[in-house]
Structure formats: structure tokens, C-alpha cells
Design a protein that fits this description.
The chain has 196 residues and is mainly α. The protein has two domains: 41 residues, Arc Repressor Mutant, subunit A (Orthogonal Bundle); 138 residues, Orthogonal Bundle (Tetracycline Repressor, domain 2). It is built from nine helices and no strands. The protein is elongated. The chain starts with 9 loop residues before the first helix and ends with a helix. The N terminus is likely disordered.
């Protein structure tokens, strides 16, 4: 039985929108396609998302939030050694981005288009990741493990320095031979530079 507008949730709409985007791509996918896949009128979708742009932005944010959520647990592990947490955090970020690009290339390509349309969503995502990194750096400074006069600035520099391993524009590099060794070398370099 198809859901009615009373039982239709924003989360369900976003799930189906991902399927529709995967099938049709961002240029051809419409709100009518999403509504049809849900078995509801397009007006039911518009009750949750006022415009097609709002729907696309929500899908993009949901996609990026999955990465943030997986990393936040590592960032919050205050009892662990900050250096180990920093390494684990960057490894988890690289792994998550590689999986997004490699496991579902059609949807990844779609998200690359959507990310280009929703720079505010991307900016919030990067800010969230930088806040997580700042917490790890700050913890390291407080424990005497890291040296940094400005942990937030240091965190952003770390994020930028490792961009090749998480910025989607480098996705083609992520499956190249030797990329894991290159990743380890960069992480080792930034960690060594942080040590007190």
C-alpha cells in the first residue's frame, strides 16, 4: 500500500529521492518522479519540501551528515590519546569518502552536481568537520601532546593539508596504486608537525 500524505515523512522522501537521483541523474530527476515513486501526489512532497531546490539541498545535507556523524564518535572519544584519535579521524574520513565514490559512482556523480548547487550546505559540513578536528587538537594541547596557539586555525590547516584525501575533486586519485602510502605519509607529516 502506498503511503498517504499523513504517513509520509521527510526521511522517507529523502530516501526515495536518492533512488530517483540514482536512476535519472540530477538533470532529469523531478519532484513528480519522486512523488510517483512514493505513490503520492507531488503536492504531498511539496508539503515537506517547499521547492525542488529545498529537496535537493536536504538530500545533499543528509549525504554529508552521514560522514559527519561517523566521524563525531571518534572526535568525542576524549579518553583516548589525541594523536591516535587524529589519525583514526583522518583515516575514517578518507575511508568514508572513498566508499561514497567507489560503492555508488552514479549517486556520487549526482552529489557532485548537487554539492555545486548547495555551497552553503558544503560550508556547514566543512565547519562541522573543522569543529571536530578543533576538539581533538584542543585536547592534545591541553594534554601537552600537541603544540598550537590557535587550535581552530590549526584544525582548518590540517583539514586543508589533507584535502587530497577527502575533497571529492580528487576522487579519481583515491583508487590509484600507492594512494594509501601517500595518505599515511601526509598524516604522519601533519601529526609530527603538531607534536609538542
Amino acid at each position: 500500500m502506498a503511503p498517504t500524505s499523513e504517513t509520509l515523512t521527510a526521511a522517507r522522501i529523502l530516501e526515495v529521492t536518492e533512488e530517483v537521483l540514482r536512476r535519472h541523474g540530477p538533470a532529469k530527476a523531478t519532484v513528480v518522479d519522486v512523488a510517483r515513486a512514493l505513490g503520492v501526489s507531488h503536492g504531498s512532497v511539496y508539503r515537506h519540501f517547499r521547492t525542488k531546490a529545498a529537496l535537493r539541498e536536504a538530500v545533499t545535507e543528509r549525504w554529508l551528515d552521514r560522514t559527519s556523524a561517523s566521524l563525531s564518535g571518534i572526535a568525542a572519544e576524549g579518553g583516548r590519546d589525541p594523536e591516535a584519535r587524529l589519525r583514526d579521524w583522518f583515516t575514517a574520513l578518507f575511508t568514508a569518502k572513498r566508499h561514497k565514490a567507489g560503492d555508488d559512482p552514479e549517486l556520487f556523480a549526482t552529489y557532485m552536481v548537487l554539492i555545486g548547487e548547495n555551497s552553503a550546505v558544503v560550508d556547514r559540513h566543512i565547519a562541522d568537520l573543522t569543529i571536530q578536528l578543533t576538539g581533538i587538537v584542543q585536547d592534545g594541547v591541553e594534554r601537552g601532546v600537541f603544540a598550537s596557539a590557535a587550535p581552530a586555525t590549526t584544525a582548518r590547516a590540517l583539514f586543508d593539508a589533507t584535502g587530497r584525501f577527502h575533497d571529492p575533486c580528487y576522487a579519481r586519485d583515491w583508487e590509484q596504486p600507492g594512494i594509501d602510502a601517500e595518505f599515511e605519509a601526509v598524516v604522519e607529516l601533519v601529526v609530527r608537525g603538531l607534536r609538542a
